[in-house]
Design brief:
7 helices, about 10% strand, mainly alpha, about 180 residues, 2 domains
Length: about 180
């Protein structure tokens, strides 16, 4: 993947004295500056760490280390449950039929004569699964871009021997399909 330090633990072991000196320099400078507040939200039961280390890191211009934890929670396996629900709904509504997301959203959220919809209950299940997957409010049509971006995160992620993949790209956008064997 091109990491700067492929074996991070070994690198940390080698660079420990330099890293420790840098960390202590930052903390010392932050304290000498009077520990200026950085307007960060409290971090649970880690107030002491947050009030000193986290504030100092942000004070020297680095990103808030707590944001990594927030992002991990957002994309953790909570997403796996949403994906599982979405794949089941997809199978019920579309089976193995290739689908353009904009067309599927049009069918689900603004039914019009001439557009095929399997069954109202399948459509309701799919709408709920989409809203859960993208984190949108119930009943509000997500944008095709929002849904597409979320699906790209889960593209080719196998769940029970099934996964979603882009099988073609057309004028209307990417064509998604539920596939039945691991990529």
């Amino acid at each position: 993947m091109g990491f700067r330090h492929p074996n991070l633990l070994a690198w940390i072991g080698q660079e420990r004295p330099r890293l420790l000196a840098a960390a202590l320099t930052i903390l010392s400078a932050y304290c000498k500056a009077g520990r200026p507040p950085q307007k960060l939200s409290p971090y649970g039961s880690f107030e002491g760490w947050s009030d000193l280390v986290r504030q100092a890191v942000v004070w020297v211009g680095q990103p808030d280390p707590h944001l990594t934890q927030v992002r991990l929670v957002e994309v953790s396996d909570v997403g796996a449950g949403a994906l599982r629900e979405f794949l089941l709904a997809w199978k019920g509504l579309n089976a193995d039929r290739p689908v353009v997301l904009s067309q599927m959203l049009a069918e689900l959220y603004a039914p019009r004569p001439g557009l095929e919809l399997v069954a109202p209950t399948d459509a309701a299940i799919m709408r709920a699964a989409i809203e859960n997957l993208v984190g949108g409010p119930a009943g509000k049509t997500p944008s095709t871009r929002t849904l597409g971006n979320r699906l790209r995160v889960f593209r080719r992620r196998v769940m029970g021997e099934q996964f979603l993949d882009i099988v073609n790209r057309g004028r209307e956008g990417a064509v998604w399909q539920l596939c039945g064997q691991a990529p």
